[in-house]
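Data card: per-record layout.
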Amino acid sequence: MTEITVHLDTYASEQEAQAIHEALIPTGATSIEVKRDYERKAGADGSLPWTIVIIAPFSLLAYGFFTQLGKNAADRIYPIIEKEIGLKLKELMKKMSDARNQRYGMEIPGNILLEDTISGATVVIDISLSDSAYHALSQVNLSSFGPTYVWYNHDTQEWTTTDRENSRQAFS
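The structure for this 172-residue chain is written out next.
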């Protein structure tokens, strides 16, 4: 049984919660629970108007779409499928961001935290990430990071953490 639990800040509407639930259906999770119970901690400048915390095995979010692309793909087309997985991740994050931004009527950057239930790593998602960043995320071994925060470093173009040794191991 594969479960996804999503915590939205208490300001989220029922419509926003429903839109996020619907965005997660294609992952193939057997259970999706969306709660509006997260006490938002905005940045000092109030720059984070909304928060989404996703608690699930990262592999489900990254590879749950894999079945839609075909399980019997030959090795020669795996890079194409891997790229598509990154794009599907981006699409999923965009759908959730759009669901939260409905109330504002414009694109406002919020906070999406992906808590991987297998590794304990929390991936900080910036909705403006490039396709290549999502592609790189689909290749990262989150288990090598352990229970820490992981984010995309635009300068190095890698997913990283403050633990440099674990950052190197994640790409081995």
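Known properties of this structure: The longest helix spans residues 78-101. The longest strand covers residues 31-38.

See the next section for split statistics.
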